[in-house]
Amino acid sequence: MHTFMQTLSDTLAGVLAAAAVITPVPAQEPIAIDSRFAEVSRTRLHYLIAGKGDPVLLLHGYAQTSHMWRPLIAELAKTHTVIAPDLRGFGQSAKPPQGYDKTTMARDIHALAASLGYKRVKLAGHDIGLMVAYAYAAQFPAEVERIALMDAFLPGVGDWTKVWLLRDLWHFHFYGETPLKLVAGRERTYFEHFWNDFAADRTKSVSERDRRIYAKAYGQPGAMRAGFEVFKAFEQDAADFQKLSQTKLTMPMLVMTGEKASGEFLIQQGRLVADNVEGVVINSSGHWLMDEAPNEVIPKLVAFLTR
């Protein structure tokens, strides 16, 4: 009995000694995301930046800001420098009285990239951001390695006025003095239309925390007027894109849409403006892809943008 207990004791001591020399795996440090400002194109842009490596630019859409990209930044920044600006008129960026056609907004972003020393980039844009991303790629095709467009439409391309998301046309014509007075102090009420009605399931759309962040951002002086200007510029965008689309893009393009939102329409538009298009429809998702289906959307974007 003594021998058995001694043997057991020696065995346990050996196990404990072996365990003591095992080096613990350190917890992965969270990606540091810096908030910065730049003076470009005679305006002031705010942007988030993280990581190291080749640059990826992420362009947000209406009813959101650069904040929407934080979950994707955390993944992409492991291998790339990721820049997510607030577009002209949005978030913490300046809100000039004009310049909301998408070719001008794209030149803002191009100037930002140049100011950071980047001559060749990868792009992803959602909603209004996809229009700006396309305008960037179409104006500076030699400087774009690949581009991802996410759920909305391209003004002026194909039968663009009949896209599913345009079933409620009123908000695209809702700008000017009277609308500004109507939404003053009621920004969140106005945006609930977008966050709820354009989602497949409003309970799985933009989170309550993020809704508060966005409502506060759009409640800043001049923010709603700037937001309305992006809609007012659609006719100019349509004219610009009709010309730009005469020369097809050749870089790889990913078009990702929500089944319950733009569906196949944006994919069809993508094939009208580019030669190398991969189309992906996210089943059971609405317009807010990053919020409604992050487990599908984020890996797909990372795989495409890190190739």
In the CATH hierarchy, what is the architecture at level 2?
A: 3-Layer(aba) Sandwich
> The biggest beta sheet, please?
8 strands, mixed
Give the full name of the CATH homologous superfamily. Alpha/Beta hydrolase fold, catalytic domain
Q: Which consecutive residue ranges, at least 5 long each, have pLDDT under 50?
A: 1-5, 11-27
| Total domain modules | 1
| SS class | alpha/beta
**What is the CATH C-level name?**
Alpha Beta
Mean pLDDT: 90
Please report the number of helical segments.
12
**Cα-based radius of gyration, to the nearest Å:** 23 Å
Overall geometric form: globular
Series of H and E elements: HEEEHEHEHEHHHHHEHEHH
Biggest sheet: strands side by side, in what order? 1-2-4-3-5-6-7-8
Strands, count: 8
Topology of helices and strands:
Blueprint: H1 2-20, E1 34-40, E2 43-50, E3 55-59, H2 70-76, E4 81-85, H3 102-115, E5 121-126, H4 128-139, E6 144-150, H5 177-183, H6 187-197, H7 208-218, H8 223-232, H9 234-244, E7 253-258, H10 265-273, E8 277-282, H11 289-292, H12 294-305
Parallel strand pairs: 3-4, 3-5, 5-6, 6-7, 7-8
Antiparallel strand pairs: 1-2, 2-4
Helix pairs in contact: 2-12, 3-4, 6-7
